[in-house]
Amino acid sequence: MAQTIQLKCGTFNLTRLLGKGKSGHSWLIENGPLQYVLKRMHNEPCAYYQFGDKLAAELAAYQRLQPLINLPRLVEHSAEGKYLVKEYIPGPPVSELAAQGAVPPGAFAQLFRWCRALYPAGINLDYFPANFVCTGKELFYVDYELNPYSEEWNFENWGLYYWLNAAGMRQFLSTGDHLAINLPGNKGKPITAPFTTLAQETITKYRQ
Predict the structure, then answer these.
(1) Alpha carbons 152 and 10: distance in angstroms, whole number
(2) Residues 6+ apart with CB under 8 A from 124
(3) Res. 186: pLDDT tops 70
(4) Pick from 61, 104, 140, 182: CA 20 to 30 A from residue 114's CA?
(5) What are the extents of the domains in the chain?
(6) What does the alpha-carbon distance between residue 140 and residue 91 come to, in Å, rounded to a whole number?
(7) Residue spans of alpha helices (H) in the chain
(8) Domain 4-87: CATH superfamily, name plus number
(9) Burial class (CB in 10 A: 0-12, 13-18, 19+), 56
(10) pLDDT tens digits, 165-185
(11) Distance separating alpha carbons of residues 115 and 43, to the nearest angstrom
(12) 74-109: pLDDT as tens digits
């Protein structure tokens, strides 16, 4: 029998785990035709990232990002329960598309357009491809996380290398081995050397 959870917006079945991130675990929850994502915050440490109040940070990020990019709608949240509920965006995560070497050209173009608005506003997203979903013609950022802009951690110098590392992403998704996509040392830095030429070609082609 499926586990159920009582929320302000109703009683839902926890259908499946969608992903585990630095700040929480995300579940697909359902009540008849209604589908939402429940994100429960956790206290697991991260070697290369320091957290404050995770829920408050994500709610503040939602308000800042909403005018700039495509986000799932916030449905409800609870400081006491340490969770938030948001709209479910159907479609493959970009991590799965990256593992197939099949990220649509339009997704690259759309993200570079977002960057033109985000960087002057002093914002970096978490550009890891699991945080994005392609619905067909549209790209959505399905996490509510932002960071102060720095060139070191922007899309061109950080996230893009995960989007381009097809073999490494396949191995990471199948085994969980972060060394398939990251440099040694627990610093959250991607493998870049084999992809520098492709990265520059991608930037030249899609960053208008």
Answers:
(1) 43
(2) 118, 146, 147, 148, 149, 150, 153, 154, 155
(3) yes
(4) 182
(5) 4-87, 94-206
(6) 10
(7) 54-65, 94-99, 105-118, 160-164, 166-175, 196-206
(8) Phosphorylase Kinase; domain 1 (3.30.200.20)
(9) exposed
(10) 999 999 999 999 999 999 998
(11) 30
(12) 999 999 999 999 999 999 999 999 999 999 999 999
Token representation of residue 107: 């997704």
CB 105 within 8 A of CB 206: yes
Q: Residue 49: CA atoms inside 13 Å, Cβ hemisphere, count?
A: 18
The dihedral over CA atoms of 91, 147, 26, 96, expressed in degrees to the nearest 10, equals 40
Among 163, 123, 138, 21, which residue's Cα sits nearest to residue 70?
138
pLDDT at 37 over 90: yes
Residue 183 CB coordination number (10 Å)? 14
Q: What is the number of alpha carbons within 13 Å of residue 18 lying toward its C-beta? A: 26
**């972060």: which residue's tokens?**
178
Q: Give me the pLDDT at residue 52, please.
A: 66
The residue type at 200:
Q
What is the rounded CA–CA span in Å between residue 117 and residue 105? 19
